[in-house]
Amino acid sequence: MRRYSAFAIAREAFRHHLGWERAWASPAPKSRYDVIIVGAGGHGLATAYYLGKNHGITNVAVIEKGWLGGGNTGRNTTIIRSNYLQDPSAAIYEKSRSLYENLSQDFNYNVMFSPRGVIMLAQTEHEVRGYKRTAHANALQGVTTEFISPDRVKDLCPIINIDGPRYPVLGGLWQARGGTARHDAVAWGYARACSAMGMDIIQQCEVTGITAQGGKVTGVQTTKGAIGCAKLGIVVAGHSGVLAEMAGFRLPIESVALQALVSEPIKPCMDVVVMANTVHGYMSQSDKGEMVIGGGADGYNNYTQRGSFHHIEETVRALIETFPMISRLKMLRQWGGIVDMTGDRSPIISPTPLGNCFINCGWGTGGFKAIPGSGWATAEMIAGGAPGPLAAAFGLERFREGRFIDESVAAGVAH
Amino acid sequence: MLILTCPNCGLTAEESELAPGGEAHLKRFGPGSEDADFEGYLFQRANPKGVHFERWRHAYGCGKWFLAARCTVTLEVFGTYPAQTTEPPTEIVNKIKAKRPDWSLS
User: Fold this and answer.
1) Could you state, in order of their start, the residue ranges of all structural domains in chain B?
2) How far is B91 from chain A (nearest CA, A)?
3) What is the C-alpha to C-alpha distance for residues A344 and A348, in angstroms, rounded to an integer?
4) d(Cα A229, Cα A63) in Å, to the nearest integer?
5) How far apart are CA B84 and CA A310, in angstroms?
């Protein structure tokens, strides 16, 4: 793999840019791998990457039904933060955020990580109390956040209306080191790095069955034939239930649609990410100038990657109240992704009832921010055969044992 | 927009008038039951990509619960029926089978 650098650009400028290599290879599947990862989204590719980088396992295939990064990795609002209440969440999300800081240097691919800061608005007395509590918890966890006053909120983001008619801004939880990254670049950067280590990324290859013998996984059936493996990682977000059914177990997961949208591009007007969980909307401005807007998930099981119109209406209504200046903006694009919701709104990184088959799912509405940390923890689990310290609390057994990592109350629904 | 007919009041309602209530026909396990059964009842869901039997409440209408058979991929609704039904009615099952010969009630 040829490194990207300023010199490479200069060199190619002299030869009509004919010397750029493909970022990753598209090989035909081999008959057998040490590890197969199903799902070439951010989490799947990150898992493969850290299997190679941290554990020296490179005989790996990443199998993808559609195209690389075309699921939720390409359908989110790219917010990165780690201001969670519970210790296990803070640990894995903070690991993830800190990995994002050096990700571009790590795999020589610019993921455009922009630590511009994230404000979560407190618009009710309960939220004020809740976020103060989170700020204290974060201080104990070593995550830098602070509770800030309405004036400071207005300073950081002048376009906010802090005297809204229904929900005036009473303060905010500020994480200066949070921010955004370029979602496609995250998937592409991991894919390029995996390919460079000799891993096979196989797109347009749908898994149609999982084969097992004596309670242990032996391989997968795909639309490109049968492929054998010693260990299998299922990292498919919204379709986790479908894969789990193939593997013969059930998951505490329901798949629903979550939508986002962008406005027409405008001049720079906000340089932080703002989340308003009471009115249920969040917004940031992309490098192209579009206002990137997200809101709540639909309420019913759904695999359509589309979502209901009235949820967009609710989100936009809430944001117009918070940011009156956006009321005349035209909306440019809308899209939906299928998110995998667990009962406690925390992810699952766990061995499964099927031997040598591992699963990483349940990131729900907030998976993008977790990609590096999730991949790190899942790779550790697959390489070692059991969850490491980051993943230990996120096992499937927590539902039976009542050890929830309850973030649905702590974080609101917006992620 | 998803449109369902409430079997209680007979009105045809849009989804913004309804509140979704998750998977239907779950067998309830209460105090004293096995941990695994209790976990299954509380958390584990079929979450099918295809025909789904589910609970709805006519929240901004008559306020009552009912059940629906719906496809989670196409959003096609096969029918709605009263909440006091312990398993999918034969009539609805036959309707689904007529449209989807490969489908079976698991």
Assistant:
1) 3-99
2) 23
3) 10
4) 12
5) 30
Test B40 with A304 for CB contact under 8 angstroms. no
DSSP code at position A124: S
Cβ atoms < 10 Å from Cβ of A389 = 11
Question: What mean pLDDT is predicted for residues A255-262?
Answer: 94
Question: What stretches of A180-337 show up as alpha helix (H) in DSSP?
Answer: 183-196, 240-247, 309-322
**Two structure tokens written together for B7:** 């079997």
- 3-state SS class at A39: coil
CATH of domain B3-99: 3.30.2270.10
Which residue from B20, B38, B47 is facing A241, i.e. has the nearest CB? B47
Q: Judge if ipTM > 0.90.
A: yes
Its pTM stands at 0.94
Q: Is A286 exposed, middle or buried (0-12, 13-18, 19+ CB in 10 A)?
A: middle
Quick: pLDDT tens for A16-54.
999 999 999 999 999 999 999 999 999 999 999 999 999
8 Å CB contact of B16 and A310: yes
Question: Which positions in chain B touch A399 (Cβ < 8 Å)?
Answer: 39, 42-44
List, for residues A363-395, the tens digit of each pLDDT value: 999 999 999 999 999 999 999 999 999 999 999
Spell B42-62 as b/e; 16+ CB within 10 A means b.
ebbbbbbbbbbbbbbbbbeee
